[in-house]
Amino acid sequence: MKELGDALKLLFMKIGDFFDIFDLSFFISGIATGSAVVLATHFLGLDFLPALQTKLGFLLGIIGAYISGLVSFAAGRWLRQVVVQKFRRKNSYDDFDNKFRSILEAHGLADEKPYKTYLECTSARGSWRLYVRLWAEVRHNEVVTPSLQLLKRYWVMAATYDGVTISLLLWFALVLSSTLGVNRLPHLPLVLGIPAAFILLVLSISTMREASRYFDYQVEEVVATIATTLKKSNQ
Predict the structure, then answer these.
(1) Separation between Cα atoms, residue 164 and residue 75, nearest integer Å
(2) b or e along 94-121 (b: 16 or more beta carbons within 10 Å of the residue's beta carbon)?
(3) How far apart are CA 153 and CA 39, in angstroms?
(4) Do 165 and 207 form a contact (C-beta atoms < 8 A)?
(5) Which among 165, 189, 177 is positioned nearest to 72, based on CA atoms?
(6) Is a pLDDT exceeding 60 seen at residue 3?
(7) Integer CA distances (angstroms), 14 to 45, 135, 150, 178, in order
(8) How many Å separate Cα 201 from the centre of its chain?
């Protein structure tokens, strides 16, 4: 029975590794972004819907949705960093370094070696290198596997919200353009179009904020996991 349990555990790990490579969370923003693009092109006279109904078109649609998700994620993360820099009036790197240092200080790690050495290496962005190292320590320590799973979930949620931010902004642009009667888009009444566009804009801002919160959760969890591991090893 023990051998069977180990075999099943290895099988599920391999399946998990497969889904880690092809992160299914990208399909969420990919489908939302792709549907906005397909609908817009349909109204503009480029109808892809019949092609998507074939087997080859369906397969290409799945690939296209995944690529759209990747692009949405990249654009959303870049946009969030720009917004943080604009409204907080801080460089995104400096903002992370200050936040990361304060978390390390709260857990009593800022003055411990080798962490202090990293933090003092400001010319090579030592704070970021230390953050990457802490991730590596978590990955290579089987004792903190539950924390690693939680960290992965935080990463996935942050990536999903980053991608959905772009999807919502595209739908906002589509609804607003339709309300204003741009080109060949079907006209939406102002009483419907303006509130819908406003709601989509507010939702995009809220998803951007959630992505930022989940990234903060990642940083907090990494440092807390290392602090807990060190405490147990010293007991």
Answers:
(1) 10
(2) eebbebbbebbeebebeeeeebeebbee
(3) 32
(4) yes
(5) 165
(6) no
(7) 45, 21, 18, 47
(8) 19
Cα 2 from chain centroid (whole Å): 38
pLDDT tens digits for range 189-230: 888 889 999 999 999 999 999 999 999 999 999 999 988 887
Q: Which residue has the higher pLDDT, 10 or 186?
A: 186
H or E, element range at 114: none
| CA 51-53-58 angle, 5° bins | 85
- Pure H helices in 22-114: 25-43, 49-52, 55-87, 92-106
Would you tell me how many other CB atoms lie within 10 Å of the CB of residue 227? 17
* Residue 2 contacts residue 46 (beta carbons within 8 Å): no
Q: What is the distance between the alpha carbons of residues 88 and 98, in angstroms, rounded to a whole number?
A: 13
